[in-house]
Amino acid sequence: MHSLITYQVDDSLALIGLARPPVNALGQPLRAALLEACELANGDPSVRAIVIHGANGLFCAGADITEFGSPASFAAPDLPGLLLRLTRLDKPVIAAIGKLALGGGLELALACGYRIGETNTRVGLPEINLGLLPGAGGTQRLPRLIGVAAALDMMISGAQVAADRALALGILDRLAASPEQLLASACDYARELIASAAPVRPAEPFAEPAKDLEADFFERYCVEQEPRWKTRLAPRLVFSAVQAACLLPLEQGLARELALFKQAEASRQSEALRHVFFAEREAGKVPGIEASTALRPIAKVAVIGAGTMGGGIAMNFANAGIPVTLLERQGDALDRGLVHIRQTYAISVKRGKLTDTQLEQRMALLSGTLDYADLADADLVIEAVFEQLAIKQDVFRQLDRVCKPGAILATNTSSLDVDQIAAVTARPQDVIGLHFFSPANVMRLLEVVNARETAPEVLATTLKMGRTIGKIPVVSGVCFGFIGNRMLEPYAREAHRLVLEGATPAQVDDVLTGLDLNMGVFTMLDLAGVDVNFLVRDANRAAIAHDDSYCRLGDELYSLGRYGQKTGRGFYQYEGRQRHNDYEVVALAERLAGELHIPRRPVDDKEIHDRCLFMLINEGIQLLDEGIALRASDIDLVWINGYGFPAHLGGPMHYAEQIGLDRVLAGIRYFRQTLGDYGQMWFTPAPLLERLVAAGKTTVERI
Ligand code: CAA
Questions:
Q1: Could you read off the pLDDT of 544-568 as tens digits, one per residue?
Q2: Centroid of ligand 1 to alpha carbon of 20 (angstroms)
Q3: Catalytic annotation on 107?
Q4: DSSP 520
Q5: What's the pLDDT tens digit per position in 483-507?
Q6: Per the database record, which ranges form the 3-hydroxyacyl-CoA dehydrogenase C-terminal domain (predicted)?
Q7: How close is the Cα of 23 to the center of ligand 1, in Å?
Q8: Is the N or the C terminus of the chain less surrounded, counting Cβ atoms within 10 Å?
Q9: Is the CB of 551 under 6 A from ligand 1?
Q10: CB burial class (10 A; 0-12, 13-18, 19+) of residue 442?
Q11: Structural domains present in the chain
Q12: How far apart are CA 493 and CA 554, in angstroms?
């Protein structure tokens, strides 16, 4: 038998084990081996039932994602055909689902007549996260098994369902008492089926899925859900496939599903989302860090500063069961911080995402102190105080005095030089930047700033810790703003300038949200605080601002006390969270343009798109060239997870590849020529972009 499969006949049962580590992805070789094994068992008269299981515990994580977009994806035997054949075997087939059955893995289980899981089993159809839909019968078989509403929810959310819920829904028929007992329990189940002369496939509970469905079910579903889908294709295709399950007999429904799947697979959105999937896995691989790099244990954490950022950071650790000490200078600030954390958890309880007991467990992991001496036994200390070098350096001097040897000392700075912070300690090898994004308990991005002297095991430990607390850690070198904020700078600068030239804040934001960014530049600045943005800009003005027009609109709003949402006025006016255009801002832009001799003109949407996006892309490519970012896909992860760039565009670097690097370069050169002195000053193509285009490259890479 093939090495990808284990095969054994034991007392009238054929046990077929999937053995393609790490996750039994159903690539062509495994598909072929599985088909061969099933045919063998089907043709063996001594076999009366077949059990398919994961030979190493884990059942199957679905189709092989590396095959998508290539001929291997549908190379014979293709997955839909293989699973159809499985449904037509002459003997009962039982799926023994250890740990995971995801995507094509769950579809494999659905093609089996019977399914047993174990206590840790999770099942799901996460294809939507790859811009796909279940393409091997899932959209047709799951609604027939658990009903349309539950099936559609699983496919649209892509969420994993735990064993007990899968049992309640009817995806699993039974549960083994433990993972170790799964295979034996599956065999017992098979023998019971043989003894009771059970049918090869039991009747489907929802054989006619449309029956008993409210007449306006799909219409209502669309009204509720569609606005959230923005321009995403995959949810719409899932929806169509499930509608087909209600309208068509199984075979025709399967054909419709296949056509929709192929449409999704060929789409740019799916290509982008597959890129993001592999980018997330790649980000953890850092040159100089081997599997053998020793990790330091992180059992106790301390956070300096109990403000919004410090509190949010602390919650991540409490959520992961790690005790955290919060340090503040004043007792009332500490109390306020802890109360705020409790209130944030209470909102989760109200929304049903947390139980009261969990709230109390998490609060019990949080303690406060006003005394640095209480941080002596922390394994990791994260400083989250005011963004000013001298203040942060002072904190690090104190930490150097009190922390135990080997403790990792991290700064949550968003723009300051981590080397200068490390330099005030006698242990710069233990200092690293950990840039969380606000709200720190929610946002998935963690920029890990590898300073000049940071030790490899400190980097390796913080990367591992980042994943433990559910973040996507991305390594950045030291520079102003690291990867994310440095790219934000030219992008936001263009947005400001375009308003002086004649666009409105709403027009700029609408172009960006039209691209499916979570929010436009000005909405973001109003939310983050016009004052906060001003202070960072002002501290670095000498280094980055080369002319009077540089973000003048933001400066003027700051001087008017229009700090954004929190003061009810910024680039927009607010009533609660409701945003309105503010004609005073337009008048202010007109006045500033006059003072700066900037001609006002109608600005079209394409120009807004190209100027903001091309400058963002250009800076990213420059960062790659400088070695601040290790790879283009890391830059994509930063902007997707920290700045709301749509994952289905793959991040700014992938988006540049889709636009065409030559077109991006031509655009930058065009603005350099047409925008006068301003164009000459700011629209300088990154040398790496020029080299890539000259070399005929279509992907962003270091050359
Ligand atoms: N295909 C190919 N490779 C896969 C894979 C898949 N379906 N799932 C995981 N891998 C690879 C990862 O790329 C990674 O490779 P490297 O070690 O080379 O980086 C390795 O397996 C381990 O994966 P993780 O690092 O992600 O390990 P984890 O333990 O953190 O997570 C997992 C495991 C939950 C299975 C996660 O990998 C995952 O979510 N995988 C994708 C599941 C999925 O989306 N399945 C649907 C596929 S599409 C489909 O099936 C379409 C269809 O209908 C026909």
A1: 777 788 899 999 999 999 999 999 9
A2: 12
A3: yes
A4: -
A5: 999 999 999 999 999 999 999 999 9
A6: 481-574, 609-698
A7: 7
A8: C
A9: no
A10: exposed
A11: 5-265 (3.90.226.10), 301-476 (3.40.50.720), 484-694 (1.10.1040.50)
A12: 10
